Amino acid sequence: MPTFPDQPLYQKIKEDILRQIKDGQLLPGDKIPTEYQLMEKYGVSRITVSKALSELKSEGIITRFPHKGTFVTKSVLLPPLVRDAPIPSSHTAMPASMTEIACILPSITDSFSLSMVNGVQSVFPEDTYICHIFQSHNPTVENYLLQRCLELNISGIVLFPQDQPFFSNQLLAMQLQNYPLVLLDRYLPRLNTNYVIADNKAAGELCLRHLHKLGHQRIAFVTSTDRNTFSVKYRIEGIQETALSLNLPDYAVQLVEFLDKHKKFSYYQDLFLNLITQNRVTAFITAESSTCTYLYDLLTSLDVKVPGDVSLMSFDKPVCSSRNPDFFTHISQSEYLMGREAGTLLKNRIELYDINTYHRVITPTLHVHESTGSVCL
């Protein structure tokens, strides 16, 4: 247990967390320990821990999401895109004009999205740029936000992926106008614009080769989104093409689509019991980190042990309240780097008037942890 000088305990905890961030032990988007874990580490009460976290949150150092956890963020949350925002009381430090950009994403309720946003923001100096963050929720709202950004003279947009295939005439019109736009983790064949994506086919190959090396011959791919969504589609293709190259039979990979994470476990218990007992599935790959945590809890409700009975792995790092942060084997898409690359492309387009089209493909990496193991014979 750390020792404290004559200083308030909450202040010491706060400074220790700040030190970890400064030293790179905690990066933007990383989940910090729970209040209970911090209480155990420092030997203090929950009130003391809460006060330290509250100060970090008020200073924009961390962001807390209900039922998700507490994550490192880059800075204070930026103001929403409104024209009647109050003017700062001091004008002396304000520049004559600031360039306004926008990030439009379906939601910002997970560490993956937060890391990408922080990556984008890291490129733009806070004294010359204002970054507006919009949650689109669905394609209709996204289309509306694109139109509003044009009406309000936003200088450029980083557009994040929808969890479904989506293309609008508004996007095509923006391309024809040569509007500064970068797609992030998203590719639209009809739209020849800048984009930054992860190599999803390579990621699918990494998943299957890892499980095949452990002896798994029957694997289920589980997704909560449309299989034709850009990332999901190519992950499936990578898995299926790898299965073919390994001479696995057609039934080796099964697809379980549209898992609704809002349904009670009882709705899916028979389905997954049949996959394990009748179809002899020994490993699951989930397309989303949130799907992974849902499936883990579902399997636990069935008294199916991970990895004792089945292996479980995911795209992106899952955050599960019942497991330590490094339990799940997962594919990292280097989301912070992806955001930074997208921000760089947009910044060059705005400042250097670079009208060339660039396609950046980020190589994924496999992180092997406890949730995958050899097949039990």
TrEMBL record:
<dbReference type="InterPro" id="IPR000524">
    <property type="entry name" value="Tscrpt_reg_HTH_GntR"/>
</dbReference>
<dbReference type="GO" id="GO:0000976">
    <property type="term" value="F:transcription cis-regulatory region binding"/>
</dbReference>
<keyword id="KW-0238">DNA-binding</keyword>
<dbReference type="GO" id="GO:0003700">
    <property type="term" value="F:DNA-binding transcription factor activity"/>
</dbReference>
<dbReference type="Pfam" id="PF00392">
    <property type="entry name" value="GntR"/>
</dbReference>
<dbReference type="InterPro" id="IPR028082">
    <property type="entry name" value="Peripla_BP_I"/>
</dbReference>
<protein>
    <submittedName>
        <fullName>Arabinose metabolism transcriptional repressor</fullName>
    </submittedName>
</protein>
<keyword id="KW-0678">Repressor</keyword>
<keyword id="KW-0804">Transcription</keyword>
<dbReference type="Pfam" id="PF13377">
    <property type="entry name" value="Peripla_BP_3"/>
</dbReference>
<feature type="domain" description="HTH gntR-type">
    <location>
        <begin position="7"/>
        <end position="75"/>
    </location>
</feature>
<dbReference type="InterPro" id="IPR036390">
    <property type="entry name" value="WH_DNA-bd_sf"/>
</dbReference>
<keyword id="KW-0805">Transcription regulation</keyword>
<dbReference type="InterPro" id="IPR036388">
    <property type="entry name" value="WH-like_DNA-bd_sf"/>
</dbReference>
<dbReference type="InterPro" id="IPR046335">
    <property type="entry name" value="LacI/GalR-like_sensor"/>
</dbReference>
